[in-house]
């Protein structure tokens, strides 16, 4: 299924998702390449909300650039399979080897601002991520490891603890939404 159809079929959870979905559909009409970083204004990314089997904990990483505990995700880099990207990024950023989608359906969407920063010695300008999120499950006893160029910590934490440890105000709202959606699916 193409991105346009996936967005059209998605039922927004709240006003933020409704507005962001509308903007994503407009950006698809306005911009040629939203699947690569070449579009310096906006591009698609995929994230994962990785929970344990009991749905009581979430796997977070301490993000070096944002200096905050964060979900897991990354750039599409030309790919068009969002779920595959979310799974790949989860394995790369946490070191876990086994992770499975709770559902192949899109779990959440959000447009996120990214402040200008330096990554790998190169300046990256301020831009936005058109982010699609998937709900994934992993065994919390798996060995984890950091990805030093991106994070300096990987930890399972309670759902409320993840919000408390996040230092980015807008992301706290996103994580609270993800937790509310998680509880609504149980």
From TrEMBL:
Pfam name, any one: NUDIX
Q: Where is the Nudix hydrolase domain?
A: 41-181
Q: Which CDD domains match?
A: NUDIX_Hydrolase
Against InterPro entries, the record matches this protein to: NUDIX_hydrolase-like_dom_sf, NUDIX_hydrolase_dom
Database matches in SUPFAM superfamilies = Nudix
PANTHER family xref list: ADP-RIBOSE PYROPHOSPHATASE, DIHYDRONEOPTERIN TRIPHOSPHATE DIPHOSPHATASE
UniProt similarity note? Belongs to the Nudix hydrolase family.
Please give the name of this protein. 8-oxo-dGTP pyrophosphatase MutT, NUDIX family
